[in-house]
Design a protein that fits this description.
four-stranded antiparallel β-sheet; three-stranded antiparallel β-sheet; 0% helix; globular
């Protein structure tokens, strides 16, 4: 389903590591799982983004992860991943 080298893997300490097409990665710690995701606005045909909201503390979302996705020959490619 994912176009390599994009990956979503369980990290050694139980978190979730998301790797983008360039090899950059972000890990969502186990304590923040499960997280809620919401769709973003498409940048163009076949492009879309997703925001992983890791819960709020005192009404503020801390360290949200943004994942930019694209379709690549019928598979999903993680274009970019990072924190806001």
């Amino acid at each position: 389903m994912l176009s390599a080298p994009s990956a979503i893997e369980v990290a050694p300490e139980g978190g979730l590591t998301i790797v983008d097409h360039s090899g950059n990665s972000v890990t969502v710690p186990e304590a923040r799982l499960p997280f809620h995701s919401g769709g973003g606005k498409p940048d163009g045909p076949g492009d879309f983004s997703m925001t992983a909201l890791q819960g709020a503390k005192n009404g503020k979302v801390e360290n949200p992860v943004v994942i930019y996705l694209a379709l690549d020959s019928g598979k999903i490619r993680v274009e970019r991943v990072g924190r806001l």
